[in-house]
Amino acid sequence: MKKYELALVVNAKIEDDARAAVVEKAKEYITRAGGTVTEVEDWGKKKLAYEIQKMNEGFYYFIQFDAEPDAPAQVEADVRIMDNVLRFLCVKKDEA
To answer: What does the alpha-carbon distance between residue 66 and residue 37 come to, in Å, rounded to a whole number?
Structure first.
């Protein structure tokens, strides 16, 4: 298994419980793809570099997980269609 990180930028205009549900849903997609979530970092509300869908702020989350090499593509396909996710990026972490 390799180490990956999924970065999510979540809509800042939704309620706290709805935002938590978005993160839980992303974690569920990771486990469904055969991955194991190791850590979730909440960076809080940050100003976006540029306007996305008429919004200037978003909540940043970084989810670390271990998975097989085919899992990130499956996770990205699921996250791509999620509501309230403004941007996402899944990257392989260095082994060092």
So the answer is: 7
Q: What is the mean pLDDT of the chain?
A: 93
Mean pLDDT of 50-65: 94
Q: CB burial class (10 A; 0-12, 13-18, 19+) of residue 37? A: middle
Q: How far apart are CA 23 and CA 21, in angstroms?
A: 5
CB–CB of 30/5 below 8 Å?
no
pLDDT at 94: 82
Task: Give the end-to-end CA distance of the chain in Å, rounded to a whole number.
Answer: 15
Q: Where are the alpha helices (DSSP H) in 1-96?
A: 16-32, 71-80
